Amino acid sequence: MTSGVPSAKSPFNASTERVERVLCFTAHPDDIDFGAAGTIAAWTAAGVQVTYCIMTDGDAGGFDPVDRERIIELRATEQQRAAELVGVDDIRYLHEHDGYLEPTHNVIKQVVKLIREIRPDIVLTMHPERNWDRLQKSHPDHLAAGEAVTRAVYPAVENPFAYPELAEAGLAAYKLPWLWFISSPADRENHFVDVTKHVDAKLDAIRIHASQHPDIEGMERVVRGMLMANGARAGLPAGTSAESFHVVSVNGSSTIAGF
Q1: Model confidence pLDDT, tens digit, residues 206-240
Q2: Fold held by 5-249
Q3: Is the pTM of this model over 0.85?
Q4: Are 196 and 241 in contact (CB under 8 A)?
Q5: Phi-psi domain of 58 (left: phi exceeds 0; alpha: psi -120 through 50; beta: other)
Q6: By three-state DSSP, how is residue 51 classified?
């Protein structure tokens, strides 16, 4: 089961939707922890199986020149430790170069392959639309990740004639129920999850990515403020922390094939 508090216009009803598997695609190590680690902690605590797919190695990240030769290994280790803190032990990588991610057919095919393999109830990824209110949410790799996953989700994942070699290998077409986006423009956000009980786990996970944060105290202050602001925007009780998402119903009771 999943936990969460939908906004008035949310298409996702956390009290009735059954979630057993979630597959998360992000551009870099640490993206998922900033965007959704509180929600993921709530999911895993409820028995949901969560898999991460990190699309680049994060090889252009960091601030210390001393780390350059070992940055890929360092960031992978950080991501593994951070994932463990929120109950995730399955991490995949596409090994694209940091800063060079594009929604090519090679990348899209790998996304389709993994979705068909895991057959999740929810795919979570970065938003493909640029956020002009906070441009840092719109790293080009973030936009590319969101675009690649969106193209994979529809129509390729559910089209048995898209990438036919996948079906020939036994990975049958699959109709995904839900697509969730993080790093969304504010006017796209339509679902909020109360993560008040999981703020410490989220911050612990983010702190693990020490190679990316020269000001840990400043980072923590900003994240706490953003979570509280999300709770207020969602109309939750004062002092509530929330994570925000743009939730899209891909295949539901009203879906007609091809429309």
Answers
A1: 999 988 878 888 889 999 999 999 999 999 999 99
A2: Rossmann fold (3.40.50)
A3: yes
A4: yes
A5: left
A6: strand
Q: Which amino acid is at 46?
A: A
113 Cβ partners below 8 Å, 6+ apart?
A: 163, 166, 171
| Buried/exposed code over 41-70 (b: 16+ C-beta within 10 A; e: otherwise) | bbbbeeebbbbbbbbbbbbebbeeeeeeee
Q: β-strand 21-26 against 122-126: which pairing, if any?
A: parallel
The pair phi, psi for residue 134, each rounded to 5°, is: -145, 90
As a whole number of angstroms, the distance between CA 6 and CA 193 comes to 7
Do you know the residue count of the chain?
259
At a CB cut-off of 8 Å and minimum separation 6, what does 77 contact?
A: none
- Both tokens of 25, joined, read 């695609």
Whole-angstrom Cα distance, residue 146 to residue 90? 21
Structural contact between residues 5 and 43, judged by C-beta atoms closer than 8 angstroms: no
